[in-house]
Design goal:
Shape: globular
Order of helices and strands: EHEHHEEHEHEE
Radius of gyration: 16 Å
Number of strands: 7
Helix content: 25-40%
Strand content: 25-35%
Strand order of the largest sheet: 3-2-1-4-5-7-6
Length: 175
């Protein structure tokens, strides 16, 4: 039984996957409120009907007994949970600074000793930076690893010549 936090619910597919993979675990997934301007920019949908369909799809995906969905900005995440609360934190919200660095640092406080943090959509080459993905999470993780607080490993997520290689980082927290 794990306590899992997902930062960035998006359409809820990954939350749903986690709930099936770890059926006896408690999964908390967070995302912005629908009326937040950043929410609409992040999902890339500006048509009211399409937004409603997106939200309905998300609601269906997260309608599982072990998923708790909170509409909060991850900037304020530490106000909702005590330190050392989660066994696993999955960071998949905003992938550019300052927010991605804030999410990683908050995750370090919220994860239990010997817990794990996974960071999605990591780029290692700045020439592939976009509004939605960047090397900033990689730089943050590398800096924290140099402080000997974590061990970070990278697995391939996607290899595309024109968009660059994306990774998922699996971080073992030492604290």
């Amino acid at each position: 039984k794990l306590n899992i936090l997902e930062i960035g619910t998006y359409d809820g597919k990954f939350s749903n996957y986690l709930s099936k993979l770890f059926p006896s675990s408690e999964i908390t997934t967070i995302d912005l409120k629908e009326n937040d301007i950043i929410f609409n920019q992040s999902i890339g949908i500006h048509n009211k009907e399409k937004v409603e369909r997106f939200i309905n799809k998300r609601n269906i995906n997260i309608d599982r007994p072990n998923i708790n969905f909170l509409k909060i900005n991850s900037f304020f995440l530490r106000q909702y949970f005590p330190n050392n609360f989660f066994d696993l934190v999955w960071v998949d919200g905003d992938h550019v600074n300052p927010q991605v660095t804030i999410d990683i640092f908050n995750s370090l406080d919220l994860v239990k000793k010997n817990g794990y943090i996974c960071v999605d959509d990591i780029l290692k080459d700045e020439k592939y930076n976009t509004k939605l993905a960047s090397v900033e999470s990689y730089k943050t993780i590398t800096k924290i690893e140099k402080l000997n607080l974590i061990d970070a490993y990278y697995i391939y997520k996607r290899v595309k010549e024109k968009k660059g290689t994306k990774f998922v980082s699996i971080i073992k927290v030492k604290k």
